[in-house]
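Researcher: Go.
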Amino acid sequence: MNRRQFLVSSTALLAARPSFAQEASFRTKYFQISADIGLHDLAPAPDGTVWFTAQGKGLLGRLDPSDGTFKTVRLGQGAAPHGVTIGPDGAPWITEGGQNAIARVDPDDLKVALFRLPEKFASANLNTGVFDKEGIYWFTGQSGYYGRLKPHSGDMDVFRAPKGVGPYGITVTPKGDIWYASLAGSYIAKIDRATGSAAVVEPPTPGAGSRRVWSDSRSRIWVSEWNSGHVSVHDPADGSWKTWKLPGDRPRTYAVYVDDKDKVWLTDFSANAIVRFDPATEKFNVFASDKANANVRQLDGRPGELWGCESGNDRIVMIQTIAAG
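Model: Structure:
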């Protein structure tokens, strides 16, 4: 039934839409990827390229923003990749839900290596992953699991989440701690890296729908709340919470990313926009897409650049911060 099965690796020229500035200090640019490719997540690489998952076609892609080209590689029969992150080895690592495996793609020859979950976790519904400071890969499965993979040995452990279904976003803090968010469970949790157990931390808003998480430079955990339309921050040092509702009517907060200046970037499906939040001033800036139904599901970045996947339009968006003067 799966059209992903019929795809081949390809190279295409991106049509980069003209940049436009919504504020003097920012510049926005769009890169059109193939129609119906099913963009989901991305990860900027140190070499300036951007890796992306194409869930609708079972592909991993690499965008070169300097000339607007991209290449894709097929991940396997029935592939449905979700998250992607860059490992300590410089390679993209993917939560590959279609094959119920963690995938690594060699950045040089694009060969795919799969680390499959045990058969008893065949319906894990893999979502996102991160590396800790020891090079261990931690991942979530929305059907009620999270786990860890030791890349050098291939050893894998899968754990059942405390409240069942829901594990979605995951992050690592500067202190080296691993936290994940549960969408269906409406909580965040800290994983004990030694034992694999997870300690649940409840947000101040019941039923918030904690979707994705990201750590700031102080190891505070920022949470995008899908159901409440809030952005919240939890400080594990003192157990405190703060929460803010995104501007507009009935916001639906999906993605969250904290940049190198500790500014918080979010996506709001209702506003069809990327939103920037400054914790120091508690003010929001809204960057509306120039096309309807953008549905930006994930954000990531590097200094001076914010990157996101418009899954609704199969475009990659970049927002650059323009230096003053």
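Model: The first strand starts at residue 11 and ends at 13.
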